[in-house]
Amino acid sequence: MSRTVTIEPVTRIEGHARITLQLGDAGEVEDAKFHLTQFRGFEKFCEGRPYREMPALTARTCGICPVSHVLASNKACDHLLSVSIPPTGEKLRRIINLAQLTQSHALSFFHLSSPDLLLGWDSDPVSRNIFGVMRQDPALAKDGIRLRQIGQTIIETLGGKKIHPTWVVPGGVSEPLTQEKRDAMLKLIPEGLEIAKRTYAFFKTLVPKFKDEANHFGSQPTMFLSLVSPKGHLEHYDGFLRLKDAQGRILEDMVPPHEYERLIGEAVEDFSYMKFPYYKPHGYPNGIYRVGPLARLNNVDACGTPYADVALAEFHMLQESGPIASSFHYHYARLVEIIYALEMMERLLKDPTILDARVRARARSNRYEGIGVAEAPRGILMHHYRIDDEGLITWVNLIIATGHNNLAMNQSIRQVADAYVDGNNLQEGMLNRVEAVIRCFDPCLSCASHAFGEMPLAIELKDATGRVVDTLRRG
């Protein structure tokens, strides 16, 4: 008799979700699904609001990556205004985006994923958390907390507060940078960079211990989508769309972000409130692709900063050829990007024009449609608005980074379940590996589902008739 395993809630992720594993008569995994069970509907309740409210409204989608929404939303408003941002305003926007990437990646690696890597997949779930890491390796835990603090402090210095800053506005930023604030931020960079390099060196020693997980954690062939600079370098704020296939061939390149609808379609399924974006030319669901740090490093020709470029070269040595396929290596890519972010913030803060007073362009709306695209820590983020003659929102579409990865996450839990779950001898460590592959993607489910309330996760075990025979639930 077949059974269904339910894991609910999925733990150490940003948001609530449930995983169901359908087992056959012999206990083998027949199907696996990742469910987002809650709904918020940001696109609908923004209708009728003035477009200038959109950055503040959509930032409330998330408390982890509000800066990403503020930037994508303001870029959509820039498009509505038809203005060019003053160069210094753009540099300041880049700095706050990189500060958020630093704190968010630190949260993902140190707080959410390092307990598995340091304490083991089968360790006691009661201690498999950041407090367990503090007991096992206090220095590593301290580094994680400090690195995240550095990123948040830079956000607060620029934006006035750590969460939901309103300093980025349509046309640029609301006020220029002072020398005092510039010097205060520059003092933080060397310490952050030392922590990032130390953690990267430590993680490289761990990677050989997880060869089996690297082989089974979401290593299915997919395409990769990200922004790149005009030179093909790592880009988080602007640039062009690049899409590579699983063999590393460039399928789309230097596509202006406002042409995203030519590439990206969106499907829905009845088991989740998260959308399923796909590459239109390949259709649904064959148009599966991944976004985020793994995709960004697979797509770029170079990072463009000294130490990050060395780390990028080492990243490509994880595999003999082609794009790095395993989603386990999202962790590796995340650490490379932290190094890049700190190096690039230092470069921008030392730019002789960074204290320029011209940081904002002003205009009224000059278009009926605006599109803003930026790289959030978890991947590419798209805001698309339409307005009427009064400047009121008539239509909104948000394609969230985590949503882009939805197809890949569903395939990944099936791959991990096939490799590790024995329905005749179900153990907690097996189910933790199923959760862990989701954590590799660092999903932000509040953004992706626009869900209200709490964010737990569950795994269900069902029999052949669909009857739930076992459930693992946390949170």
From TrEMBL:
Cofactor(s) annotated in UniProt: Ni(2+); Fe cation
Binding locations of Ni(2+): C65, C444
Top-level taxon of origin: Bacteria
Amino-acid positions noted as binding Mg(2+) in the UniProt annotation, renumbered to this chain: E43, C62, L398, H450
Keyword Ribosomal protein among UniProt keywords: no
Residue numbers binding Fe cation: C65, C447
Any one Pfam family match given in the protein's UniProt record, by short name: NiFeSe_Hases
Family as reported in the entry's similarity comment: Belongs to the [NiFe]/[NiFeSe] hydrogenase large subunit family.
Protein name: Hox1H
Organism: Thiocapsa roseopersicina
Upper taxonomic lineage: Bacteria, Pseudomonadati, Pseudomonadota, Gammaproteobacteria, Chromatiales
